[in-house]
Amino acid sequence: MRNINSDESQGSRKARLARFLLQPAGKALLVLLTASSRSLNLLHLFLRQVLPIDRPQASGRPFINTSMIFAAPRTVSLGDRVDAADIVAQLRRGGYTESRSNRWLYHVRSDAIEIFPVRTRTSTRNPRC
Predict the structure, then answer these.
(1) Can you give the pTM of this predicted structure?
(2) Same-domain status, 44 and 75
(3) Domain boundary among 22, 44, 59
(4) Domain check: are 44 and 69 in the same one?
(5) Distances from the Cα of 116 to the Cαs of 14, 17, 31, 42, 112, in angstroms?
(6) Contact of 95 with 129, CB cutoff 8 Å
(7) Which domain holds residue 22?
Protein backbone atom coordinates (compact mmCIF):
# COMPACT_ATOMS: atom_id res chain seq x y z
CA MET A 1 0.00 0.00 0.00
CA ARG A 2 1.27 3.40 -0.95
CA ASN A 3 1.82 6.19 1.47
CA ILE A 4 -0.20 9.13 0.17
CA ASN A 5 1.62 11.64 2.37
CA SER A 6 5.03 10.74 0.89
CA ASP A 7 3.70 11.23 -2.68
CA GLU A 8 2.27 14.60 -1.76
CA SER A 9 5.47 15.71 -0.01
CA GLN A 10 7.57 14.60 -3.01
CA GLY A 11 5.29 16.53 -5.34
CA SER A 12 5.49 19.61 -3.15
CA ARG A 13 9.31 19.35 -3.10
CA LYS A 14 9.39 19.31 -6.88
CA ALA A 15 7.01 22.26 -7.00
CA ARG A 16 9.17 24.22 -4.53
CA LEU A 17 12.29 23.41 -6.52
CA ALA A 18 10.62 24.52 -9.75
CA ARG A 19 9.46 27.78 -8.14
CA PHE A 20 12.99 28.38 -6.78
CA LEU A 21 14.62 27.80 -10.16
CA LEU A 22 12.23 30.23 -11.83
CA GLN A 23 13.18 33.02 -9.42
CA PRO A 24 16.25 35.22 -10.05
CA ALA A 25 18.25 33.49 -7.29
CA GLY A 26 17.50 30.07 -8.80
CA LYS A 27 18.49 31.23 -12.27
CA ALA A 28 21.73 32.66 -10.86
CA LEU A 29 22.44 29.32 -9.18
CA LEU A 30 21.89 27.48 -12.48
CA VAL A 31 24.22 29.87 -14.31
CA LEU A 32 26.86 29.47 -11.59
CA LEU A 33 26.65 25.68 -11.71
CA THR A 34 26.87 25.65 -15.51
CA ALA A 35 29.84 28.03 -15.56
CA SER A 36 31.72 26.09 -12.90
CA SER A 37 31.04 22.83 -14.73
CA ARG A 38 32.42 24.24 -17.98
CA SER A 39 35.42 25.70 -16.15
CA LEU A 40 36.21 22.30 -14.68
CA ASN A 41 35.93 20.73 -18.14
CA LEU A 42 38.37 23.29 -19.57
CA LEU A 43 40.78 22.72 -16.69
CA HIS A 44 40.61 18.98 -17.31
CA LEU A 45 41.34 19.46 -21.02
CA PHE A 46 44.23 21.77 -20.21
CA LEU A 47 45.79 19.31 -17.80
CA ARG A 48 45.37 16.36 -20.17
CA GLN A 49 46.22 18.00 -23.51
CA VAL A 50 48.27 21.17 -23.12
CA LEU A 51 50.67 20.27 -20.32
CA PRO A 52 52.07 17.17 -22.06
CA ILE A 53 52.87 19.37 -25.07
CA ASP A 54 54.79 21.86 -22.92
CA ARG A 55 56.82 19.28 -20.99
CA PRO A 56 59.37 18.43 -23.75
CA GLN A 57 60.50 22.07 -23.73
CA ALA A 58 62.40 21.41 -20.51
CA SER A 59 64.82 19.20 -22.48
CA GLY A 60 65.79 22.10 -24.77
CA ARG A 61 64.40 20.45 -27.92
CA PRO A 62 60.66 21.09 -27.81
CA PHE A 63 59.81 19.79 -31.28
CA ILE A 64 61.97 16.69 -31.36
CA ASN A 65 59.11 14.39 -32.42
CA THR A 66 57.64 16.59 -35.13
CA SER A 67 57.96 15.96 -38.84
CA MET A 68 57.65 19.54 -40.12
CA ILE A 69 54.02 19.07 -41.07
CA PHE A 70 53.62 22.66 -42.22
CA ALA A 71 57.02 22.93 -43.91
CA ALA A 72 57.30 23.50 -47.61
CA PRO A 73 58.77 20.48 -49.38
CA ARG A 74 62.22 20.79 -50.86
CA THR A 75 62.51 19.36 -54.32
CA VAL A 76 65.83 17.94 -55.44
CA SER A 77 66.07 16.87 -59.05
CA LEU A 78 68.63 14.85 -60.91
CA GLY A 79 71.58 17.07 -61.83
CA ASP A 80 70.99 19.67 -59.07
CA ARG A 81 74.09 20.65 -57.13
CA VAL A 82 73.21 20.05 -53.50
CA ASP A 83 75.48 19.67 -50.49
CA ALA A 84 74.84 16.37 -48.66
CA ALA A 85 75.42 18.03 -45.28
CA ASP A 86 72.66 20.54 -46.06
CA ILE A 87 70.20 17.76 -46.87
CA VAL A 88 71.16 15.85 -43.71
CA ALA A 89 70.71 19.00 -41.59
CA GLN A 90 67.28 19.57 -43.09
CA LEU A 91 66.32 15.94 -42.47
CA ARG A 92 67.36 16.24 -38.82
CA ARG A 93 65.32 19.42 -38.40
CA GLY A 94 62.39 17.50 -39.89
CA GLY A 95 62.58 14.74 -37.29
CA TYR A 96 64.60 12.16 -39.23
CA THR A 97 67.42 10.28 -37.48
CA GLU A 98 69.83 7.48 -38.33
CA SER A 99 68.35 5.40 -35.51
CA ARG A 100 66.28 2.41 -36.63
CA SER A 101 63.93 2.93 -33.67
CA ASN A 102 62.65 6.20 -35.16
CA ARG A 103 59.69 6.31 -37.56
CA TRP A 104 61.60 8.62 -39.92
CA LEU A 105 64.97 7.13 -40.88
CA TYR A 106 67.76 8.19 -43.20
CA HIS A 107 71.08 6.57 -43.99
CA VAL A 108 74.09 8.38 -45.47
CA ARG A 109 76.16 6.40 -47.93
CA SER A 110 79.26 7.58 -49.77
CA ASP A 111 77.31 8.23 -52.97
CA ALA A 112 73.71 8.75 -51.78
CA ILE A 113 71.36 9.55 -48.92
CA GLU A 114 68.68 6.92 -48.41
CA ILE A 115 65.43 8.14 -46.85
CA PHE A 116 63.00 5.66 -45.33
CA PRO A 117 59.72 7.15 -44.12
CA VAL A 118 57.68 4.51 -42.34
CA ARG A 119 54.10 4.47 -43.52
CA THR A 120 51.40 3.93 -40.94
CA ARG A 121 47.80 2.96 -41.47
CA THR A 122 46.69 6.58 -41.18
CA SER A 123 49.40 8.19 -43.30
CA THR A 124 49.04 8.28 -47.06
CA ARG A 125 51.90 10.62 -47.92
CA ASN A 126 55.56 10.84 -47.09
CA PRO A 127 56.52 13.45 -44.49
CA ARG A 128 57.76 16.71 -45.93
CA CYS A 129 61.32 17.94 -45.53
Answers:
(1) 0.38
(2) no
(3) 59
(4) no
(5) 67, 66, 55, 40, 13
(6) no
(7) 4-59
pLDDT tens digits along 43-86 = 988 887 776 665 655 555 555 555 555 566 778 788 888 888 98
Cα–Cα distance measured from residue 79 to residue 109, given in angstroms and rounded to the nearest whole number: 18
Secondary structure of residue 116 in the 3-state scheme: strand
Cα dist from 73 to 66, 67, 78, 128, 129, whole Å: 15, 11, 16, 5, 5
Please tell me whether residues 49 and 87 are part of one structural domain: no
Question: Distance between CA atoms of 112 and 128, rounded to whole angstroms?
Answer: 19
Is the same domain home to 69 and 46? no
* Phi-psi domain of 4 (left: phi exceeds 0; alpha: psi -120 through 50; beta: other): alpha
Q: Which of 58-67, 92-101, 105-114 bottoms out in mean pLDDT, i.e. has the lowest?
A: 58-67
Residues in the chain: 129
